[in-house]
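Can't paste images in this forum, so I'm doing it all in text. The chain is below; anyone willing to post the predicted structure tokens underneath?
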Amino acid sequence: EKEGKASGLVSELTSIVKEQKVRMTELITCRQEMLSELREKVKLLESEGNTRSKLEARFDNLQQENCRLSAKVTAQESVIAGLREERKLWGQELALQGATLAQDR
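Text version of the structure:
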């Protein structure tokens, strides 16, 4: 009877160990799959981060270029405004000289 109990107990324990082995194998496989997925996500995020960094650098360069070009346009507009004013003054001076010449005749 003791041997039967012991044998039954050994059989039960063996069955439990087999079940646990199967369960552990499933958990290990699941964990490895999750790790693989996470590694892929990390690679994707790193790639997107690099792309974003490049785009940010390009954006910064474009902003600087925009500022430079805006300053250049402002300077050119100022020169144009000055030339228009000078042309206006010359026109007035020529008109005045023309009127003076007409009076002298």
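The mean pLDDT is 95. The helical segments are 2-104.
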